Q: What sequence folds into this?
């Protein structure tokens, strides 16, 4: 394969169209391809980009609130892009838009050109070989966990099979097959896509490590290491392999895999292509824009998330527009947008078979009843029906223990033995969860000696290292129902100078109020954990004024906290 970069002309404007470009923002469509573009003209200088929001591929339109005529607004989630700088301004301080190359031809016409690196999966291509029945079998276990039989090897994706995720906010919807631990122990390799605890499950890995600590585990070389917290987890795993992005990893003469990064969250999210005898299996997991939207077409099997609901927004917010009616309408609209986005992605990529997964969780703890009732998820069958309307792709809604035989399905999708469902009477949905041990572990932090000294607040936020940002946050420790805890901490943090004032400062400043269940916030603080446990785990209630998402703040506390925890031993010695 030729591994050189290629160029592609995306849009060409005639000399007349080029001469009539107006100052500021210009929208164009390539009628042949239907693709949309934005050009920004400032005197003799022209910048250009695709009219495609980096978040979830929405179209931009003119931002009527922008009097300077420099920004556009996404029709999906109101993200805003300043086209004069190609930087997103809502969320502030977040992302940059990739620019296209602008070239003038000899007649003063204009060309928009994209530099295309070669697709890494096309390196050393292998023609698909015929598969024997039973040679490649994919068994769904739970959530994002698949057990792949590839010839005489077994590979497992993202094993979360016991315990909660995100502190105590997420629990398994499906009852995993009773032999799940034996299946894990028999695996030749495990792929873990990212550090979120519904994919990197320490309760699951703890049980596995007691029997096979040397099991080969593969992760991508993300900026935030997937196993950043391994040493303090109490789990002993001795064969973790961090591999570079975009390179084939050879398992044996028939099997290889390639890990790719996410275009929106490259610092933590990954996806994977597994190839067996030339047949590709694409698992995009939770990636918002897997590999920046550039993915292999016509793979044998594609699987992706579909459900939505993996965020504290908007259920955990109150005040201003956040009425119950607004939240319900927003959730309904968001889920519909996600379904349409996934259906379009499948239509574009045309896999032979598609499977929606990685969305089978439930907020089953009684104290999270409100979240469970309001945080509605997409129905996988609804997505599959939408896909079938628009394409010939075969779809599979998985049930725990169900097995897809890839050889049979590729030969004849109507083969009754192509998908073997679990035996009659198999328990599909969980109806009880062992809350006790996990809540006890969280609660153990509440009475820790650290919290006898109010100076822990300064110690913790100094360790966290976020400052020089105009935001004031009020942190309130609460009981189970998010009422202020008698005797709990209630304090302000001014992140402009990292001070802890008694009252809000007089200057103009954005303000957030974060109420957190005391057991979870203290456990997170004590162990230096990321705030995903609080936010994605629904363990907070939030208000903000004005209603702006502070990307830099949340990104820091959800992804960029120091890799080593606060030195509480030294802190207590100084307190003593």
A:
């Amino acid at each position: 394969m030729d591994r050189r970069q290629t160029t592609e002309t995306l849009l060409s404007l005639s000399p007349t169209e080029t001469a009539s470009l107006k100052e500021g923002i210009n929208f164009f469509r390539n009628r042949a391809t239907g693709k949309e573009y934005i050009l920004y003209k400032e005197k003799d200088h022209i910048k250009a980009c695709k009219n495609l929001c980096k978040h979830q591929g929405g179209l931009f339109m003119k931002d009527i609130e922008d009097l300077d005529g420099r920004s556009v607004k996404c029709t999906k989630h109101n993200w805003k892009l300043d086209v004069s700088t190609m930087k997103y301004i809502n969320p502030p301080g977040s992302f940059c838009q990739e620019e296209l190359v602008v070239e003038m031809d000899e007649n003063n016409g204009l060309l928009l050109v994209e530099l295309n690196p070669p697709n890494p999966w096309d390196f050393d291509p292998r023609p698909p070989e015929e598969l024997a029945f039973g040679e490649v079998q994919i068994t769904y276990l739970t959530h994002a966990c698949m057990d792949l039989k590839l010839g005489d090897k077994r590979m497992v994706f993202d094993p979360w099979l016991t315990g909660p995720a995100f502190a105590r906010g997420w629990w398994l919807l499906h009852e995993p097959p009773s032999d799940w631990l034996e299946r894990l122990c028999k695996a030749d390799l495990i792929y873990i896509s990212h550090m979120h605890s519904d994919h990197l499950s320490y309760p699951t890995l703890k049980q596995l490590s007691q029997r096979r600590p040397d099991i080969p585990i593969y992760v991508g070389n993300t900026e935030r290491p997937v196993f950043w917290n391994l040493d303090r987890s109490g789990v002993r795993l001795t064969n973790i392999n961090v591999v570079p992005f975009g390179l084939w990893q050879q398992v044996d003469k028939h099997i290889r895999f390639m890990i790719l990064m996410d275009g929106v969250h490259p610092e933590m999210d990954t996806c994977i292509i597994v190839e067996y005898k030339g047949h590709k299996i694409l698992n995009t997991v939770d990636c918002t824009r897997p590999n920046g939207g550039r993915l292999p077409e016509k793979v044998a099997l594609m699987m992706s998330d579909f459900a939505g609901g993996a965020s504290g927004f908007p259920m955990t917010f109150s005040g201003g527009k956040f009425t119950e009616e607004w939240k319900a309408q927003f959730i309904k609209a968001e889920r519909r947008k996600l379904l349409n986005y996934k259906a379009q992605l499948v239509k574009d990529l045309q896999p032979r078979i598609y499977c929606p997964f990685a969305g089978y969780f439930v907020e089953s703890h009684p104290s999270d009843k409100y979240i469970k009732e309001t945080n509605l998820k997409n129905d996988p069958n609804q997505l599959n029906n939408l896909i079938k309307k628009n394409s010939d792709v075969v779809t599979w809604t998985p049930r725990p223990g169900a097995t897809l035989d890839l050889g049979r399905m590729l030969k004849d999708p109507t083969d009754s033995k192509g998908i073997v469902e679990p035996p009659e009477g198999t328990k599909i949905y969980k109806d009880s969860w062992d809350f006790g041990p996990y809540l006890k572990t969280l609660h153990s932090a509440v009475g820790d000696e650290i919290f006898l000294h109010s100076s822990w607040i300064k110690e913790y936020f100094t360790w966290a290292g976020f400052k020089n940002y105009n935001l004031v946050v009020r942190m309130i420790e609460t009981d189970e129902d998010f009422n202020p805890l008698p005797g709990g901490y209630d304090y302000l943090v001014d992140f402009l100078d990292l001070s802890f004032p008694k009252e809000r400062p007089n200057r103009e400043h954005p303000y957030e109020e974060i109420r957190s269940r005391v057991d979870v916030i203290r456990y997170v603080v004590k162990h230096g954990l990321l705030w995903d446990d609080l936010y994605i785990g629904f363990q907070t209630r939030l208000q903000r004024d004005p209603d702006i998402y502070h990307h830099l703040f949340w990104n820091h506390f959800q992804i960029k906290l120091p890799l080593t925890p606060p030195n509480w031993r030294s802190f207590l010695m100084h307190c003593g």
Remarks:
- The first strand starts at residue 6 and ends at 13.
- The chain has a mean pLDDT of 95.
- The radius of gyration is 25 Å.
- The CA atoms of residues 401 and 423 lie 9 Å apart.
